[in-house]
Amino acid sequence: MEVEDAIIRAKANDQIAFNFLLDTFWNDVYAFQLKRTQNENDAEDITIQTFSKAFDKIDTYDETYKFKTWLITISKNIHIDLIRKQKKTIRNTSKDNDKNFLEIVDDSPSPEDKIITEQNLAKLLRDIKKLKPHYQEVINLRYFQELSYREISEELKEPMNNVKIKLLRAKKLLAEIITEK
C-alpha cells in the first residue's frame, strides 16, 4: 500500500489504512519527540497523542504537504502545549527590592482534594469496567501497573504496534463513555 492510498482510505475510516500509517510513521514521530523530550515515556505518550489527533483530523490533511511533515507539526504543537501547561505551575510574582523571584505553587492535595480524587478514581474504574475485557487489560497494564509498551507487548504476546493501537482505541472508547455522562 502506498502512503497516498492509505491516506485516502483512512479518510474513509479504513482501519487497515490507519494501521499502515501508524506503522509507517511511528518511528519518525517517536524519534522526533525523543530528541525533544529526552524521555522515552513522554516521547511515547506524545507520539500516541499525535496519531490520535491526526487520525481524528485526517479529513483536514492537505495533500500539498508531506504527510510526515503534517504529523511532525502536530507532534511539535502537542509538545509545546504540554510545556506551556508545565510553565503555568510556576508563576512570576511581584518585585521585591527590584529582585524578581519565582513562587512555586503548592500542588499538594488538601483532604478535600484527596476525597474528590478517590471518588473520581472510583468513577473512572466503573467506566473502565464498561470496556471490553481486552481494553480493560491494556489500560490496567499501562496506567495502573505502569508497564512500558514493550512490557505490555511481552505480557500480552502481541506485537507492540497492536498494543499501541489497542491502547489508543481503549482511550478513545473510555473518553466516549466518560463524556456521555
TrEMBL record:
GO biological process: DNA-templated transcription initiation
Domain RNA polymerase sigma-70 region: 27-88
Keyword Glycoprotein: no
One of the record's GO molecular function terms: sigma factor activity
InterPro entries: RNA_pol_sigma-70-like (IPR039425), RNA_pol_sigma-70_dom (IPR014284), RNA_pol_sigma70_r2 (IPR007627), RNA_pol_sigma70_r4_t2 (IPR013249), RNA_pol_sigma_r2 (IPR013325), RNA_pol_sigma_r3/r4-like (IPR013324), WH-like_DNA-bd_sf (IPR036388)
Superkingdom of the organism of origin: Bacteria
Domain RNA polymerase sigma factor 70 region 4 type: 125-174
Keyword field: Sigma factor, Transcription, Transcription regulation
Family membership noted in the UniProt record: Belongs to the sigma-70 factor family. ECF subfamily.
Name this polypeptide is given: RNA polymerase subunit sigma-70
